[in-house]
Specification:
The chain is an alpha/beta fold. It folds into three domains: about 100 residues, Rossmann fold (3-Layer(aba) Sandwich), CATH 3.40.50; about 70 residues, Dna Ligase, domain 1, CATH 3.30.1490; about 80 residues, no CATH class. About 40% of the residues lie in helices and about 20% in strands. The strands form three sheets. A four-stranded parallel β-sheet has the order 2-1-3-4, sandwiched between helices. Strands 5-8-6-7 form a four-stranded antiparallel β-sheet, with helices on both faces. Strand 9 and strand 10 form a beta hairpin. Helix 1 crosses helix 9. The radius of gyration is 19 Å and the shape is globular. It starts with a strand and ends with a helix. The relative contact order is 0.16.
């Protein structure tokens, strides 16, 4: 089978350029071990292609113009993982709406414009403090996900978003509990989770300052796996990762979900499963055409 792999641009790998490159390259190695031929291109190279000959494409792309081109190719009959439509579903506000519709446990949240937020925007969000998150896309800069302690601070951040050209945002309640990060491949046995605070994961320093130390509250890990796969199906993606907050009573809520993350702590284990997922789904399409 001849495949095209579209890499992720470095601007969309904040703090993870090397890690994103590593999981992509490991996946290619696994595909080649299985006897498949892989052509690799960058997002910019993909955009300049006048014609894409490969029927099967796998991608970590995030550039909006690339996603639009992927969607056009999918409509023409090509098979792409993760789907361009699925990648767009993972934009923050799209993700929120899809997960809530699929009954995935999620923090109480509101979607708002940044230039004219409602007067009562913050009034009925429970708990202390809020998370203000860029709504139109993934987080690219550190400031795209900001914790605030008051409505005044929240409105200031929304104004900053507006000045930066970000049209809408998600406001979520702050959840107390253990932060758990997970990685999975829908349709496979693979599921990996860990506590990032325990590994001094620098990306989560602000979360740790807000929520405090990890208590390792007991919870149903198999249930989290099932819920994560439900979320992936609702978003139309196969290769995924995300974050959840586990409360003292063992309940959990997913606070973030991403298409094809870095799998940094488990990439050697994950890569064969990702390759198998790709080939199984590509082969399924071949069989459907026979």
């Amino acid at each position: 089978m001849t495949l095209l792999g579209v890499k992720r641009g470095s601007i969309f790998s904040p703090n993870h350029i090397g890690n994103d490159e590593a999981i992509f390259n490991l996946t290619i190695s696994e595909l080649e071990k299985l006897g498949h031929q892989v052509t690799v291109c960058t997002e910019n190279e993909f955009l300049t292609m006048s014609e894409v000959n490969e029927e099967f494409i796998f991608t970590m792309a995030r550039e909006k113009d690339v996603i639009l081109k992927l969607q056009v190719l999918e409509r023409s009959g090509k098979t792409i993982i993760n789907s361009g439509f699925g990648i767009e579903n993972c934009f923050r506000n799209n993700m929120t709406n899809a997960l809530i519709k699929a009954n995935v446990p999620y923090p109480k949240s509101k979607i708002t414009t940044t230039d004219a937020p409602a007067e009562d925007l913050f009034q009925d969000l429970p708990g202390d403090g809020f998370w203000i998150k860029r709504g139109d896309f993934h987080a690219i800069h550190k400031e795209d996900v900001t914790y605030v302690e008051s409505e005044e601070q929240g409105r200031y951040i929304l104004k900053e978003f507006s000045l930066r050209g970000i049209p809408n945002a998600l406001i979520s309640q702050n959840l107390l509990g253990d932060l758990v990060k997970f990685y999975g491949i829908r349709g496979s046995e693979f599921f990996y989770l860990f506590y990032p605070y325990d590994h001094n994961h620098h990306k989560y320093a602000e979360y740790e300052q807000t929520n405090g130390k990890t208590f390792h509250y007991p919870f149903d890990q198999e249930l989290l796996k099932n819920v994560a796969n439900t979320a992936a199906e609702a978003l139309n993606i196969f290769v995924y990762g995300g974050d959840a907050i586990v409360s003292k009573d063992g309940t959990f809520r997913i606070i973030d979900f991403n298409d094809w993350p870095s799998f940094a702590p488990c990439r050697a284990q994950a890569a064969p499963y990702i390759a198998q997922c790709l080939i199984e789904n590509f082969t399924l399409k071949v069989d459907e055409r026979i």
